Amino acid sequence: METPKILLMGLRRGGKSSIRQVVFHNMQPLETLYLESTSRPTEENMDSLVKFQLQELPGQLDVFQANQEDQSHLYSDVSSIIYVIDSQDEYLMALQNLVQIVETAYKVNPKIHFEVLIHKVDGLNEDFRQDTQRDIIQRVTDELTDMDITNADLTFHMTSIFDHSIVEAFSRIVQKLVPKLSSLTQLLDIFCARSGIEKVFLFDANSKIYLATDSSPVDVETYQICSDFIDVSIDLANLYSKNGSMQSQSGSQQLSCLSKLQNGVNVYLSYMVKGLLLLGMSRSDSQQKLVLVENNICVLRDGLEMIYT
Ligand code: GDP
C-alpha cells in the first residue's frame, strides 16, 4: 500500500517551517524566529500506527502556474492538505489561495481532508480569536458554496506553536489516517473498563502526537499534562541510559513507569510497539490494581503487535 501523503501549504511566513520543526524536531518555539525561509519542498516521515509522509511546500511555489496535469499529479495521491493561515496578519489573500487550492484539489480527489490551521492565535485575545475564527469559516464556506463545493471535508483548528494546541491539532489530523481507528478506540475503551483507568492515550514518543485514545472526550489540559509527563520521563530515562539500565535512541523504548501527580492522579506510562507509548490516568490506586494494569498493558501490547506490525 502507498504511504499516505500530507501536504503542508500556506503563504510565506505563515508558520509552516516553524510548525514542522516544533512538532517533528522538538525545536523550542522561540528558536523558530531565526528559521530561514524554505525554498524547496521538505519531507517528514512517520512510521508508527500510521505511516505517512508530510511534505512542506514553500509558499513561494505557485501551484497555480503549474499546468492541469501537474496539479492533478500533485493532489491525486494526497490524503490531507494542511493549510496554514497567519491569523495575526491580513488574511484575505490566504483565504483566496486556500479556496483555489480546495477547488482544484477537490476536483482531482474529493476524498482529501482539508485541515485549516488558523495559526498564531497566541497573539489574539479571547474575543478576537472567536471573531477571527467565525470570520474565516464564514468567508471560506461562502466562497466554496458559490463554487458549488458543499461536500468538501474541511476542518478548522486554532493553533499556536507557543502552547500544545499545534500538537493537539496534528493529533486530530493524523488520527483520521490511522487504519482501523474505530476498532482501536473500542479496544482502548475495553482496556480502560477492565483496568479501572479513566483515560488512556497512545502517543508517538518522538512528536507527542497522540494517535489514538479511548472514546471519552479529551481536554487540552489533560493533553498538556500527558505531554509534559512524557518529556520528563524520557529525559529521565535518557539520563540512565548511559549505564545500561535503559537503552534506546530516544530513551523511550523499554520505558515503563508509574507516578502519582500532585493532584492525586496516577499516571502509567509504558512502551508499546513502533515508537508508541501508552499513557493511562486513574484516580484510585492499590497494589492489586497495579498488577492488573500491568497485565492488561502486556495483553494490549501483544494485540497491537499483531495488528500493526
Ligand atoms: P513559513 O514561511 O510559512 O515556513 O513561516 P516560518 O515558519 O518561517 O514562520 C514565520 C514566522 O512566524 C517566524 O518568525 C516564526 O517564529 C513565527 N511563528 C510561527 N508560528 C508562530 C505562532 O504560533 N505564533 C507566533 N506568534 N509566531 C509564530
The number of helices is: 8
Instruction: Please identify the structural class as seen in this structure.
Output: alpha/beta
CATH fold-type name of the largest domain: Rossmann fold
Q: How many β strands by DSSP?
A: 11
- State the helical fraction: 40-55%
* Alpha carbon gyration radius: 21 Å
The residue ranges in which pLDDT falls below 50 over 5 or more consecutive positions are 244-249
CATH top level class name of the largest domain: Alpha Beta
| Terminal residue distance | 14 Å
Average pLDDT number: 87
User: CATH H level of the largest domain: which superfamily?
Assistant: P-loop containing nucleotide triphosphate hydrolases
> Which CATH architecture of the largest domain?
3-Layer(aba) Sandwich
Q: In what range is the share of β-strand residues?
A: 15-25%
Which ions and ligands are bound to the chains? guanosine-5'-diphosphate
Strand order of the largest sheet: 2-3-1-4-5-6
Element pattern in H and E = EHEEHEHEHEHHEEHEEEH
- Shape field: globular
Number of domains: 2
Main pleated-sheet profile: 6 strands, mixed
What does this structure look like?
This protein is of the alpha/beta class and 309 residues long. It has 2 domains: 5-176, Rossmann fold; 180-308, Beta-Lactamase (2-Layer Sandwich). It is built from 8 helices and 11 strands. The protein has helices at residues 16-25, 68-76, 92-108, 126-146, 165-175, 181-195, 220-241, 287-308, and strands at residues 5-10, 42-47, 51-56, 78-86, 113-119, 153-159, 199-204, 210-213, 256-260, 266-271, 276-282. Strands 2-3-1-4-5-6 form a 6-stranded mixed β-sheet. The longest helix has 22 residues, at 220-241. The protein starts with a strand and ends with a helix. Guanosine-5'-diphosphate binds next to helix 1.
